Fold this sequence. Notes:
Elements: H1 4-12, H2 14-27, H3 29-47, H4 50-56, H5 65-80, H6 82-92, H7 102-119, H8 130-149, H9 159-198, H10 204-225, H11 242-273, H12 280-299, H13 303-334, H14 338-359, H15 367-380, H16 386-405, E1 408-409, E2 412-413, H17 422-438, H18 460-473, E3 485-487, E4 508-516, H19 519-525, E5 533-539, E6 546-552, H20 554-561, E7 578-581, E8 587-597, E9 610-621
Antiparallel strand pairs: 1-2, 3-8, 4-9, 5-6, 7-8, 8-9
Helix pairs in contact: 2-3, 3-5, 3-6, 3-10, 4-5, 6-7, 6-8, 8-15, 9-10, 11-12, 11-13, 12-13, 12-14, 13-14, 14-15, 14-16, 16-17, 17-18
Amino acid sequence: MANFPASLWARLNPxxxxxxxxxxxxxxxGTVGVAVLLALHxxxxxxxxxxxxxxxxxxxxxxxxxxxxxxxxxWSLYLALGLPLYxxxxxxxxxxxxxxxxxxxxxxxxxxxxxxxxxVAPGRDEIFTGAFLFWFFPTVLFTHLLVALVxxxxxxxxxxxxxxxxxxxxxxxAQSAVFSFILYAGIAGxxxxxxxxxxxxxxEKVFLTVLAWVAIPVQTFIFLANAPDPYRSEESWPEPxxxxxxxxxxxxxxxxxxxxxxxxAYGVKIVLEGTLPRGVVTGLVGxxxxxxxxxxxxxxxxxxxxxxxxxxxxxxxxxxxxLWVALGQRIADYGFTELRVLGFYLGLFLTVVTVYFLVxxxxxxxxxxxxxxxxxxxxxxxxFKASSWAFRSQYARFERIATANGFVKDGKILxxxxxxxxxxxxxxxxxxxxxxxxxxxxxxxxxLEVIDVQDREVQEWQARSxxxxxxxxxxxxxxxxxxxxxxxEMPLQYQWESQQTALDATPYSRVQHYEAFNLWEENRAFxxxxxxWRTDFATTGPKGNQTVNVQFPVPDWMKRQGWKLARGFKERxxxxxxxxxxxxxxxxxxxTDIKVSCPSTQPDAxxxxxxxxxxxxxxxxxx
Length: 623
């Protein structure tokens, strides 16, 4: 403790900090430059610098805030890809054969990869669409994996170097994130105190700017200052960091064991019942496998963790059967979408790595990031990237349905034939709507060019809505359950427009607006009482104001009005609301809206339709 002040001063000494910063800049100039440039760019976006607006604004889009901000945000994300790329360049420079030219050559290769990734990226109008996200996140994963792999390409070194370097990188990133969070929280607290105590006006832009600089350049400096030397070859395996080791032993492993037990129990359940696994199983098994291999990569070097790794891989091999059955069934029924392509690649990664380790139990962990990097790159570029694969699959599905049912002739969509198969119409509509939502530009020259697919800003849900409207005009109407919301089919559908809807309160002594969602849960809970929902209502009476419990006997209402739960999307608006009785003789419900939906997460033609939404006014009649 006597040396603590000296040790603290040595760490916080401005001269030492400056030397550390100079060392980071000298060692990683490309990454530091990108980090500072990115923070400056974000600052300009926050404060809306005029020169930045004029630089990014496009005349054809109109120089408005939304247009230039979208373009600026896109290039900010492109720039961020350089952060890991130029670290990988620095790490990999020693692997090149050109001596003094190695470093400049490594940076030229990194800049070439950076430019190539930007060139193959989705267009500027897709910045906030699914197409961009399905490209960006796998690309981020690929660039970060390059940092782990590049120094060890074709390197027949002891495995200690690879394992030690990547564990240090992971822990260094976690440490830099925690330190940066604490630093930002402290600065924000100081600024907040100045604002509260000295009336110094600080708007949110100041806090956003501080966040940008702390989260990017400062965190980058902290990370790079502690970056390991990938060419250091350990003579023996280092002891595990105590914090990491305790985290694995007492938290991560027990939680994963419980998670695995649940998945295995579900597998036994469906085998005994003779049913197929639900679609959500793909994501659950994928998450279990991904977290598991992260833990394996961090701990496999430690002898006590070897047995855990072996058991994890054996259990995962069984669970992968569930994953492939669940995913395969959805692909067979509905074809590939971007999410199913991601699920396929994730399942392929887990399967390849698991089989590899089961066959070679003592193999090194280098195969984990290598296979993952290859698959991440496949998702973003080439013929099997997620967007291209999904489009080919869904368009083939569209053509198959259209041809088999006579919906298309001579490259044009015909009016819906009378007596068309219900399931075929629904599948036709869903496939066409999906293609419009995610692949609008690719529809040019196809029968689905019934909407504007060229020279347009891609707005996913707008394109989907336009396609649904165009097909509805041709007589194709959704008449089966979907994950969307269906209306109750009744003689009159009462549609409430807003909470400010005028209600003649003359006949009533009390009026209270009421709205309820997810009614199927309460429908099951109160089935024995015949009430679908219940709430408190303030009433007036001989004893003054009272709060009473009111139950809504909705099944009785349905029977009174002759309403039936059915599938259908058309809205019907009634001129007058319906006044219905409740469990209180003097309290009535003025119904303005009632809807149904399919509560199933994987709806199909046989999924049940249940009451979902109830809206209107609770009223007490005057005596």
